[in-house]
Amino acid sequence: MQIGYKLFAEDVAPKELIHRAVEAERAGFDFVEISDHFHPWLPEHQHSSFAWAILSAIAAQTTTLRLATGVTCPSIRYHPAIVAQAAATLQIISDGRFTLGVGAGERLSERIVGEGWPEVGDRHARFREALEIIRLLWSGGTHSYRGEHLRLEDARVYDLPERLPEIVVAAGGPQAAALAAELGDGLFSTDPDASLVEAWTSAGGSGPRYAEAPTAYAADARAGAEAAHRRFRFGSLGWKVLAELPDPAAFDQATQAVRVEDMQESFACGPDVERHVEVVSQFVDAGFDHVALMDASEDPDAFMTFFADELGPRLRGL
Predict the structure, then answer these.
(1) Which of 34, 127, 235, 247 could form a disulfide linkage to 7, CB 3.0–4.6 angstroms apart?
(2) InterPro entries annotated for this entry (predicted)?
(3) Of the listed 10, 23, 25, 37, which one is catalytic?
(4) What is the pLDDT of residues 67-85, one digit of tens each?
């Protein structure tokens, strides 16, 4: 199993994200993954930097740490040709350490380019076309593409790595899992859902299976739950809601009923290593083999020490 650290770009300043990635490598993490949004989720969040610039800086300051987007939408805010070029370049400068995590996006960040927010069927159709365009450009040479939603005209990615990045596709149900099996090299999810992994493998999927485990290291469980509530209460809404709300104010309104106690039920809160192992084990038991710790800690340096000394060795034994 590979253990990762989530770089939560919505609530951490750009240089601090880079620092945390360097510290994650020192603490023994295998990879980092970074969210790729234009806007943050909640009013409490005060950042949302450009993920590709952060990843490039991390690549220059680390040597073994693998990098991933978790996840980027290649079909609305970005054109897939730009994502194909960016991912190929990052794979080169990181010496083959990059994984392209992709998803169909959320209204929160994708609507900013003024093309509206497509209904779910059109979003998934655009997403399929985007993956086809990326694969086409990564095959080498000059290509054009005319889909129902996306176009490509005489485009070529000139700098291609010797080994292409893996594409890991986010899925929340069997239809998306089938798409991940068809056009992706791996699966990405935020839920410990064994049926999703089974749907993916049944559709012919093979390769890495990425997930994010919710943790909140703190001096005690209550402090951890309060930190998780401030940073991650939006996650309790579920993806059908997460994809549709337009701005941080809407997410704030939608999460008014979420309690600190609710976070303690889903997050590994506090310093108890057994509780952290219990939460991560749900994802391992569901079939995921790349698990990023999405830690809500107020003291990331203390969490890194906790991981290096206690949690990491325990998770390696799962």
Answers:
(1) 34
(2) F420-G6PD/mer, F420_G6P_DH-rel, Luciferase-like_dom, Luciferase-like_sf
(3) 37
(4) 999 999 999 999 999 999 9
Instruction: Collect all residues with Cβ–Cβ distance below 8 Å to 223 and sequence separation of at least 6.
Output: 269, 270, 298
Taking the C-alpha atoms of residue 245 and residue 175, their distance in angstroms, rounded to an integer, is 22
Determine how β-strand 143-146 pairs with β-strand 151-155.
antiparallel
Q: Which helix (H) or strand (E) segment is 166 a member of?
A: strand 166-170
* pLDDT, tens digit (0-9, with 9 covering 90-100), for 139-188: 999 999 999 999 999 999 999 999 999 999 999 899 899 999 999 999 99
In which element (H, E) is residue 15 found? Answer: helix 14-27
Residue with tokens 């998934």: 124
Q: Answer yes or no: 19 catalytic.
A: no
- Which residues are bridge partners to 209 per DSSP? 187
User: CA dihedral in degrees (278, 280, 282, 287; nearest 10)?
Assistant: -150
Q: How far apart are CA 145 and CA 25, in angstroms?
A: 40
For the question of residue 37 being annotated catalytic, the response is yes
68 contacts: CB under 8 Å, gap ≥ 6? 4, 31, 32, 33, 34, 98, 99, 100, 101, 168, 210
pTM comes to 0.97
Q: Which of 106, 110, 212, 226 is catalytic?
A: 106
List domains and CATH numbers for the chain. 2-316 (3.20.20.30)
Name every residue whose Cβ is closer than 8 Å to that of residue 199 and which is 6 or more positions away in sequence.
173, 174, 177, 178
The predicted model gives 92-101 an average pLDDT of 98
